[in-house]
Write a structure and sequence with these properties.
Helices cover about 40% and strands about 15% of the residues. Helix 3 packs across helix 11 and helix 13 packs across helix 16 (about 505-540). The longest helix has about 35 residues, at about 505-540. It has three domains: about 15-75 and about 230-345, no CATH class; about 85-225, no CATH class; about 360-535, UvrC, RNAse H endonuclease domain (Nucleotidyltransferase, domain 5), CATH 3.30.420. The protein is of the alpha+beta class. It is elongated, with a radius of gyration of 31 Å.
Length: about 550
């Protein structure tokens, strides 16, 4: 009751409000069906502004302040850390965090080199003595100062040891430094040093001289971290209305090289267009991140593009351009970002379906360990059981999310190979399986028509090469292959062409061992069935 549930802006207020109440229409940035949303409305208010940029600034400010339930809220992947400034505090804290949803925080980042950013932040704290504690009322604490004050990591604002003006000036220096304006910081500090020297306050002058030297030392030790001031971003989105979720993938480039990839989830996106998702991302993300690129590439023309560009330029104090890629290189990167957004969305769908279980973490670990293209959610393992050409058989065991999918198991009676040629038999079995993927548009519930993420074959390097050659002939590039040798317990794959020894205690690799053993068991059971049937037939044939 009496809570703001949605904040938006409109050029034409009448048309916007009318659209809320027409059946079948949808609301920009509203996460629920119209009937549900309008049923929550008790009253409506509006504020008139002079122009669209002012409206965007006000909209962003009110959303951050009130966090309405039906406005877009981002959830990021927390893969890279940021430096957060708690600007709403009298004496703002500065600290490293992976959480980009802290109320009242401004962010710099993301930073890919965690070790470097920790070192940088530690040095900056020593230079400018900024607090990172959670004292409720700085300046009013009556206890003794903490250890950080005694080791020159904090200026003790909680004890009134520094004025609010001087403290915020130091915070400003850190921001300038992180924006790459290190020369400005040094020039300002040098002016302060000269001021104190002229007044013969040599102790204060020496203290500032020490700060200047420390900054210069930091610039030398972290040259890689601070190099590259020409930056640009590429972002793309993917959505799946079946799960009511969208994903945004943001690529940050520094001096032409990829510096960071950040992924974000937007829940309840069924009633949002991709244009609204991109626009909403700008309002949620770029309004809170301070050091943003001057050029941001988007996948297509979006509504309010000029207004958003003007708004960002005004609040960041520099020209921000929103552009659609024109050259081949940036178009390819945009395609890569779009694919990454889709894969991240698929990953999140899988996490939800599996409850982000231990198994999922093991599958991700397996992907990274073996250098796979896909997270191996569906694994198919092939085994040949061959004791005499008359009884040769193949099997396919299937694991989905790390567990056996018994309904997906298949037997193959060898049809086209004479003699005991295991390699040719393996090629036949895998070929027969792959032919079912030739036309995936056919709507068949059978698991056999589901494309695997990973194919495992029982055997060594030769078996791996047989299947790889088969994939090359069929132009298959989006399914991973590995082989596993029983005696040596080695895995052969594209990353490890000469094999890698299995750690039998590794739970991720244990998934491969289990499906290998399951395929072998299944092949033997079918082989025994064929053999017994053949033996029975032979005995009966001898009876006259």
């Amino acid at each position: 009751k009496n809570r703001i549930i949605y904040i938006g802006k409109a050029k034409n207020l009448l048309e916007r409000i009318r659209s809320y109440f027409f059946p079948g229409e949808t609301i920009s940035f509203v996460n629920h069906p119209i009937s549900f949303f309008t049923g929550k409305i008790n009253s409506l208010d509006f504020i008139e502004t002079d122009n669209e940029i002012e409206a965007l600034i006000l909209e962003s400010s009110l959303i951050k302040k009130n966090r309405p339930k039906y406005n877009i809220q981002l959830k990021d992947d927390k893969s890279y850390p940021y430096i957060a400034f708690m600007e709403g505090e009298q004496y703002p804290r500065v600290f490293m965090t992976r959480n980009r949803n802290i109320k009242g925080a401004r962010y710099f980042g993301p930073y890919t080199n965690v070790k470097s950013i920790k070192e940088v932040l530690n040095v900056l704290r020593k230079i400018f003595q900024i607090r990172d504690c959670r004292k409720a009322k700085p300046g009013k604490i009556k206890n003794s100062v903490c250890l950080n004050y005694h080791i020159n990591l904090c200026s003790a604002p909680c004890m009134g040891k520094i004025s609010e003006h001087d403290y915020k000036k130091n915070v400003g220096y850190i921001k300038m430094f992180l924006r790459g304006n290190d020369k400005t910081v040094i020039n300002n500090l040098r002016s302060e040093m000269n001021y104190f020297a002229e007044r013969k306050e040599f102790e204060n002058a020496a203290e500032i001289k020490h700060k200047i030297d420390s900054i210069n030392d930091l610039m030398i030790s972290q040259k890689i971290f601070f190099s590259g001031k020409k930056t640009w971003d590429i972002l793309s989105a993917a959505k799946d209305d079946r799960v009511n979720t969208a994903a945004v993938s943001l690529y940050n480039y520094k001096d032409g090289e990829l510096a960071a990839i950040s992924n974000f989830i937007i829940s309840s996106s069924r009633y949002l267009s991709e244009s609204e998702i991109i626009s909403g991302f700008f309002k949620c993300y770029y309004s809170e991140v301070d050091n943003i690129s001057s050029k941001i590439y988007i996948p297509f023309e979006i509504d309010e593009v000029d207004a958003i560009s003007g708004w960002l330029s005004e609040i960041k104090g520099k020209k921000i351009e929103l552009k659609i890629p024109k050259n081949k290189e940036k178009k390819e990167i945009m395609e890569m970002a779009k694919k990454n957004a889709f894969l991240y969305l698929e990953k999140k769908k899988f996490e939800r379906s599996s409850g982000y279980s231990r198994v999922f973490k093991e599958l991700v670990k397996l992907k990274d360990l073996l250098g796979l293209i896909n997270i191996p959610k569906r694994i198919e393992c092939f085994d040949i059981s061959n004791i005499g050409p008359a009884f040769a058989a193949g099997s396919m065991a299937v694991f989905v999310d790390g567990s056996p999918l018994n309904s997906g198991y298949r037997h193959f009676k060898i049809k086209n190979v004479s003699g005991q040629d295991d390699f040719a038999m393996l090629a036949e079995v895998v070929s027969r399986r792959l032919k079912y993927l030739d036309n995936l548009k056919i709507s068949i519930e059978d698991s056999f028509y589901t494309k695997p993420d990973l194919i495992v074959v029982d055997g060594g390097k030769a078996q791996f090469n047989i299947v790889r050659k088969l994939f090359e002939e069929k132009n298959i590039e989006d399914i991973d292959i590995i082989s596993i040798a029983k005696k040596e317990e080695k895995i052969f794959c594209s990353k490890f062409s000469n094999g890698i020894n299995l750690d039998l205690s590794d739970k991720a690799l244990n998934i491969i061992i289990r499906i290998r053993d399951e395929a072998h068991r299944f092949a033997l059971s079918y082989h025994k069935k064929i053999r017994d049937k053949n033996m029975t037939r032979s005995i009966l044939d001898g009876i006259k």
